Automatic annotation (TrEMBL):
<dbReference type="InterPro" id="IPR036396">
    <property type="entry name" value="Cyt_P450_sf"/>
</dbReference>
<dbReference type="InterPro" id="IPR002403">
    <property type="entry name" value="Cyt_P450_E_grp-IV"/>
</dbReference>
<dbReference type="GO" id="GO:0006629">
    <property type="term" value="P:lipid metabolic process"/>
</dbReference>
<feature type="binding site" description="axial binding residue">
    <location>
        <position position="440"/>
    </location>
    <ligand>
        <name>heme</name>
    </ligand>
</feature>
<dbReference type="GO" id="GO:0020037">
    <property type="term" value="F:heme binding"/>
</dbReference>
<keyword id="KW-1133">Transmembrane helix</keyword>
<dbReference type="GO" id="GO:0005789">
    <property type="term" value="C:endoplasmic reticulum membrane"/>
</dbReference>
<keyword id="KW-0479">Metal-binding</keyword>
<dbReference type="GO" id="GO:0005506">
    <property type="term" value="F:iron ion binding"/>
</dbReference>
<keyword id="KW-0443">Lipid metabolism</keyword>
<keyword id="KW-0472">Membrane</keyword>
<feature type="binding site">
    <location>
        <position position="109"/>
    </location>
    <ligand>
        <name>substrate</name>
    </ligand>
</feature>
<keyword id="KW-0444">Lipid biosynthesis</keyword>
<dbReference type="InterPro" id="IPR030686">
    <property type="entry name" value="Cytochrome_CYP8B1"/>
</dbReference>
<keyword id="KW-0256">Endoplasmic reticulum</keyword>
<dbReference type="InterPro" id="IPR024204">
    <property type="entry name" value="Cyt_P450_CYP7A1-type"/>
</dbReference>
<feature type="transmembrane region" description="Helical">
    <location>
        <begin position="6"/>
        <end position="25"/>
    </location>
</feature>
């Protein structure tokens, strides 16, 4: 009689031993960065990192300096904290550091989309064509119409629109931007009221997926949550299917261009559905949270609010509603808002916390600005966390935790681009969109979309905090490294459409 318990137990020991052996045997070689494997075999510092990435990396930098390698779940990540040394990582002309394969693995896990090697170029090419120049102007017009529909309703303002309404500021911003973005990108049916209902229902599902997202990426979900995530993925694949989109008008030229490229490459319709889910996330996962921080900072800093309102009046004139159905807005004015541009750049400095990752394809020499060189092993990952190393550096940005609406303005009102570290001019002084090969291809559209929303709010609405003395909430530590941060708790506010003369 075979005793399967001891046999299986022995096999488990062998498997675990094989997994842990390379980590247990790894030691720092000459010229390699400081190595910190942690005390737990294989896991290393994974739990501390996932609990609060910002505090973990701050502690590691204090312990090891500007370059260090840590073990996280059987993988080794070398973090570079000196922004003066970012250039060789971000430019990498030798193709030693790869971003695309890592991104392909991530989108397959999160969205179910099996990316092809040419997708990265295809997305950037479509974004350059349709999210810049005339293409961007056309999409801005569509977004203004969508925001009018979402904020005013299909029949224009309701009779109580000028009465005070109370809501959570984060939920309000996220909901409005998501619904307008979804409708602007994926089109409409002939029934606008039904379109709004569909967008509202989809946002509720999107928000639930969003809440599970960080632990999903880290594979920390419970059994029921794994089932829920799978169901949500399937729901989005259905709701965003190519078949359903055929029934709609006004699908954006940007999305249409990319789907056409996929069809020409022979991508089947089910994979196109998953691509749509990925693009919905990419386009709408950060704009709402960013606008939350922007409006909150304006509400907490009345000098900034006053400056933005004065600029809006100067470039757009007095607010008025045409036929009580849509917002009047001269979109060309978006190019003439240096104060708002600085507000948005400062908001992103304080709120955007992306991690930039590169996979080392072959042994690599990391050359620091100081002249120091470090050997990085093939198979490891090189990581940048600009929020800590750039955005919160007091040498680059004095009083880095303080919101200063004019931080990115020169005294003459032009955009400020000259920032310094250790007396040297620094190129990477604000990195909310990433940089290099991984820079966000839709950044110009995202910024325009957010600026339109902020301007509509300050021009057409009265709004205030329920508790004006409430401090700005801290960042939810679970969101470090995932695009724009989110608050640890909601902020209540009141708003109303300004009474029209």
């Amino acid at each position: 009689m075979v005793l399967w318990g001891p046999v299986l137990g022995g096999l488990l020991v062998v498997v675990v031993g094989c997994l842990c052996l390379p980590a247990l045997l790894r030691h720092r070689r000459p010229q390699e960065p400081p190595l910190d494997k942690g005390f737990v075999p294989w896991l290393g510092h994974a739990m501390a990192f996932r609990k609060n990435m910002f505090e973990f990396l701050k502690g590691m930098r204090a312990k090891h300096g500007d370059v260090f390698t840590v073990q996280l779940g059987g993988q080794y990540f070398t973090f570079l904290m000196d922004p003066l040394s970012f250039g060789p990582i971000l430019k990498d002309t030798q193709k030693t550091l790869d971003f695309i394969k890592y991104a392909q693995e991530l989108v397959l896990k999160v969205f179910g989309y099996q990316a092809m090697d040419g997708d990265h170029h295809m997305i950037h090419s479509a974004s350059t064509k349709h999210l810049m120049g005339q293409g961007l102007e056309d999409l801005n017009t569509t977004m203004l119409d969508s925001l009018s529909l979402v904020m005013l309703g299909p029949k224009g303002p309701s009779p109580d629109a000028s009465s005070w309404h109370e809501d959570g500021l984060f939920c309000f911003c996220y909901s409005v931007l998501f619904k307008a973005g979804f409708l602007g990108l994926f089109g409409y049916t002939k029934d606008r009221a039904q379109d709004l209902q569909e967008a509202e229902a989809l946002f509720a599902k999107f928000r639930r997926f969003d809440l599970l997202f960080p632990r999903f990426v880290y594979s920390l979900l419970g059994p029921r949550e794994w089932v829920e995530v799978s169901q949500l993925q399937h729901l989005f694949h259905q709701r965003l299917s190519v078949e359903q989109n055929l029934e709609k008008d006004g699908i954006s030229s940007w999305l249409g261009c990319m789907l056409q490229s996929l069809r020409e490459q022979g991508t089947d319709s089910s994979m196109q559905d998953k691509f749509n889910f990925m693009m919905l996330w990419a386009s709408q996962g950060n704009t709402g949270p960013t606008c939350f921080w922007a409006l909150l900072f304006l509400l907490k800093h009345q000098d900034a609010m006053k400056a933005v309102k004065e600029e809006a009046t100067r470039v757009l004139g007095e607010a008025r509603l045409e036929d009580k159905k849509s917002f009047a807005f001269t979109l060309s004015a978006l190019k003439c808002t240096p104060v708002l541009d600085s507000v948005m750049e400062e908001t992103l400095r304080l709120g955007a916390t992306p991690t930039l990752l590169r996979v080392v394809q072959k042994d690599f020499v990391l050359k620091m600005a100081s002249g120091q060189e470090y050997q990085i092993r093939r198979g490891d990952k090189v990581a940048l966390f600009p929020y800590l190393s750039v955005h919160m550096d007091p040498d680059i940005h004095p009083e880095p935790k303080t919101f200063k609406y004019n931080r990115f303005l020169n005294p003459d009102g032009t955009r400020k681009v000259d920032f310094y570290k250790s007396g040297k001019k620094i190129h990477h002084y604000n990195m909310p969109w990433g940089s290099g090969v991984s820079i966000c291809p839709g950044r110009f559209f995202a910024l325009s979309e957010m600026k339109i929303f902020i301007l509509l709010m300050v021009m057409y609405y009265d709004f205030e905090l329920v508790d004006p003395h409430m401090p700005v909430p801290p960042i939810d530590p679970r969101r470090w490294g995932f695009g724009t941060s989110q608050p640890s708790h909601e902020v209540r506010f009141r708003y109303r459409l300004k009474p029209m003369q």
